[in-house]
Design brief:
The protein has helices at 15-21, 25-41, 53-72, 77-92, 98-120, 130-152, 162-167, 176-183, 197-205, 225-245, 263-267, 270-302, 325-329, 334-340, 343-354, 362-374, 378-401, 409-436, 439-448, 452-460, 476-487, and strands spanning 212-213, 216-217, 495-497, 503-505. The strands form two sheets. The protein has a two-stranded antiparallel ribbon with strand order 1-2. It has a two-stranded antiparallel ribbon with strand order 3-4. The chain contains 21 helices and four strands. The model is unreliable at 155-167, 208-219 and 468-506 (pLDDT under 50). By secondary structure, it is mainly alpha-helical.
């Protein structure tokens, strides 16, 4: 059976291999490009480590352009048009609004291509240029907001974290070579993660490993070998899990819910439907895990992504990270699950939406921008509406219910088990429309559960706020344990017990 795609503009050189292994040619080209990038990335750490920044910029740019043309053919012109449009705006628009203007312009450009894909490519969905353009949109807008914040010389939000501030501040407009190499760098062109300009320029200039890290100077260049092997192994494991489950739990079966006469609609119970939906969305997530972990391995293999040392003195290579697989799959609340998914995109959303404007509409702005960034399929908007609703509701429920379970260890373990299960149920319920894309099957899926989770979340909005009486008090033994933990590292000369038994810190 031929795996040729009429809508695909990329190279057909490996069509013979595509037909032999039974994978679509666009996916074969994607894998070949990423594996080649993984091998080439190694040269940036050893032979090219001492090369000039201009040469390293040029090499990142040329390889990125070649990868784009190999995978997308004539569509690759958009990879240059969007950055050129944004760079022109950087040079011409008022400094205090350049971030807002470039966000609007790049999202409009991206939206036009999303609509084109949705109208013409829906019947034969394939890898196309919108994926890299989504990443480029993140880069050009984060750069624009970095410049805007530097020029205006003011905090965009009182709660801005130190990490966020460093990500969203640079001092001058990059040169054309620096700018286009940054937007088209091959390491993360295909599927992210988004790299902030300050991190990219540090990688190119080679000074990201020669700075103070929590009071000590990093003198040696830590090897990313273990991190790369770990992530490549995780990527391969995700691919194998996908291949083993894809035929057993295809997401397309859920589309039959829109037909009341189908076997799925007539015979499947709500409980079994939920279990099937969990497994079928797990299959879809495995594709993301495979692509994202491989992309992270490419970053690390080139020397990008070093994030200091952990408490054991081991190097951390998680700065360029899209996914915390275990953090997502075993999250005990909705917010933690969201934070573990597409992590650097969350950082971009924080910089472009969360910290812009007043505090009242933060969650709505983040989910609205995220939905628009993904495209116009109705399933995206159903998912992000439910995600925003559940995020707020989960916070209310946690504040109301959690103190009731903290008075004993068995109650706390019960609470952890319940929150794990409810998070998995809520996340499955929320994400099914995202992968179904279309309105009718998504509404039919929700209808099978009578929109129950939506109503529960709406009801949670009326829960009373947490009061002091809800916070459990500690008995004397718990207070003693807490005090001993708090003071165990205080020198003996700095603490003593008074006659009445109270702990005194001097």
């Amino acid at each position: 059976m031929s795996t040729y795609n009429d809508y695909y503009d990329g190279s057909n050189f490996f069509l013979f291999l595509s037909n032999k292994i039974g994978l679509p040619i666009d996916l074969v080209n994607f894998l070949i490009a990423q594996m080649a990038a993984l091998c080439v990335a190694r040269f940036f750490r050893k032979p090219l480590k001492l090369a000039s920044p201009e040469f390293r910029h040029s090499l990142c740019l040329v390889i990125g352009l070649l990868m784009g043309y190999f995978c997308f053919g004539k569509q690759a012109v958009h990879l240059s048009v969007l950055p050129m449009l944004s760079y022109t705006l950087l040079k011409t628009v008022p400094q205090h609004i350049m971030g807002n203007i470039i966000l609007a312009a790049s999202m409009l450009y991206l939206s036009c291509l999303h609509l084109h894909r949705q109208i013409y490519h829906t019947a034969n969905y394939s890898l196309d240029i919108t994926g890299p353009l989504m990443v480029i949109t993140q880069r050009v807008t984060s750069l624009a907001y970095s410049l805007q914040d530097s020029y205006t010389k003011k905090e965009v939000n009182a709660n801005t974290s130190k990490n966020s501030d460093s990500e969203c501040r640079i001092e001058k407009i990059p040169s054309p070579l620096e700018y286009f190499a940054y937007t088209l760098a091959f390491q993360t062109l295909m599927c992210g993660p988004v790299v902030f300009y300050s991190d990219y320029i540090s990688f190119i200039e080679g000074d990201q490993l020669n700075k103070e890290d929590e009071g000590k100077v990093i003198e040696n260049d830590p090897s990313p070998r273990l991190a790369v092997l770990y992530k490549v192994a995780g990527s391969v494991a995700a691919a194998l899990l996908y291949l083993s489950l894809a035929e057993k739990y295809p997401i397309s079966v859920l589309e039959e819910l829109q037909d009341p006469t189908s076997e799925v609609s007539r015979t499947w119970s709500a409980l079994y439907l939920l279990w099937y939906a969990y497994l079928s969305t797990l299959v879809v997530r495995c594709k993301y895990y495979h692509a994202w972990l491989l992309s992270e391995a490419i970053c690390n293999n080139s020397g990008m992504g070093f994030n200091g040392y952990d408490n054991n003195g081991s190097p951390k290579w998680d700065k360029m990270s899209n996914i915390d697989v275990f953090g997502f799959e075993f999250a005990q609340n909705f917010r933690a699950a969201v934070a573990s998914w597409n992590k650097n995109t969350n950082a971009w959303l924080r910089c472009a939406a969360y910290e812009r404007g007043g505090a009242a509409g933060r969650t709505a702005r983040v989910y609205a921008l995220s939905a628009l960034w993904h495209g116009f399929h109705p399933g995206y908007y159903l998912t992000f509406f439910a995600g925003g609703l559940f995020t707020v509701a989960a916070k209310k429920i946690r504040a109301f219910a959690r103190p009731m379970f903290l008075k004993s260890r068995p109650k706390k373990l019960l609470y952890d088990a319940l929150t794990f299960i409810t998070t998995r149920v809520a996340m499955t319920y929320t994400t099914v429309p995202f992968v179904l894309l279309h309105l009718s099957p998504s509404l039919a899926f929700y209808g099978k559960f009578y929109y129950s989770l939506h109503f529960i979340a709406l009801g949670a909005m009326f829960l009373p706020a947490k009061t002091k009486s809800q916070v459990p008090s500690l008995n004397s033994s718990e207070l003693l344990i807490t005090s001993s933990k708090f003071t165990k590292d205080i020198p003996a000369s700095g603490k003593n017990i008074e006659a009445n038994g109270k702990l005194k810190i001097s």
